[in-house]
Amino acid sequence: MSLEAMEDLHLEEPETQEVNGILMTKMISDNWDKIWNFQARPDDLLIATYAKAGTTWTQEIVDMIQNDGDVQRCQRANTFDRHPFIEWTLPPPLNSGLDLANKMPSPRTLKTHLPVQMLPPSFWEENAKIIYVARNAKDCLVSYYHFSRMNKMVPDPGTWEEYVETFKAGNVLWGSWYDHVKGWWDAKDQHPILYLFYEDMKEDPKREIEKILKFLEKDVTEEVLNKIIYHTSFDVMKQNPMANYTTLPASIMDHSISPFMRKGMPGDWKNYFTVAQNEEFDKDYQKKMEGSTLTFRTEI
């Protein structure tokens, strides 16, 4: 669809509807049967994350690996056209993720924010490889809040105080952060899933990119590896229109409210949480994460 046609779109606040107890846009829920029956292929690679956990960053790293560090090649199209977002359903004439994915030749790299229990079963049946990236809850919350302020395709977040409660209760698109990270963590030993942490990727991108290379059974030279690290750094990606979502009109994403790529630093939550909010959050967090072996760092 042309950008001119997009400019003319006036998006109302999206209606939401639950699918199996998980909040989704109504367009996704109306299309759910098709999404659930999506046919994965054995050579698909799926990048799965909770929203605002480093998805686009991981997509760029993977694309650079698959294209042996060819920067021009990785600029061939927007992230969202290179890697179809399988459940994302848009009003015509916009392309829905499912349509893009079904038209795409193999091997495909796909994206999802679905919780593990809602992933189309064909991914498990085909034994497709999955990279899951998890980010600590507090930074995820801050990032999701700002994203919801600027993105007209997701519900308005309300005030910061309201949003903290909304997030804790899991009343956001794709449901509870707690259930999401735990669900995928529990699945990782039964399936070919590489489970990565955003904070680790920030701390030592080289080490984490090497894990991805190994998982994808791919070798690159030291020179290519350094190129990947450089071109997928936050500051470089922030300037890359094929990765920073600035090609979308302000009627869809208003970067003057908050840029899509905002800070990308672990620990930014400290600039938002009051002492009282932080204490309340920690108490609630202990309860919800009890019994899980999953641990997160809230700063590096």
Automatic annotation (TrEMBL):
<protein>
    <recommendedName>
        <fullName>Sulfotransferase</fullName>
        <ecNumber>2.8.2.-</ecNumber>
    </recommendedName>
</protein>
<dbReference type="Pfam" id="PF00685">
    <property type="entry name" value="Sulfotransfer_1"/>
</dbReference>
<dbReference type="GO" id="GO:0005737">
    <property type="term" value="C:cytoplasm"/>
</dbReference>
<keyword id="KW-0963">Cytoplasm</keyword>
<feature type="domain" description="Sulfotransferase">
    <location>
        <begin position="42"/>
        <end position="292"/>
    </location>
</feature>
<dbReference type="GO" id="GO:0004062">
    <property type="term" value="F:aryl sulfotransferase activity"/>
</dbReference>
<dbReference type="GO" id="GO:0006805">
    <property type="term" value="P:xenobiotic metabolic process"/>
</dbReference>
<dbReference type="InterPro" id="IPR000863">
    <property type="entry name" value="Sulfotransferase_dom"/>
</dbReference>
<dbReference type="InterPro" id="IPR027417">
    <property type="entry name" value="P-loop_NTPase"/>
</dbReference>
<dbReference type="GO" id="GO:0050656">
    <property type="term" value="F:3'-phosphoadenosine 5'-phosphosulfate binding"/>
</dbReference>
<comment type="similarity">
    <text>Belongs to the sulfotransferase 1 family.</text>
</comment>
<keyword id="KW-0808">Transferase</keyword>
<dbReference type="GO" id="GO:0004027">
    <property type="term" value="F:alcohol sulfotransferase activity"/>
</dbReference>
<dbReference type="GO" id="GO:0050427">
    <property type="term" value="P:3'-phosphoadenosine 5'-phosphosulfate metabolic process"/>
</dbReference>
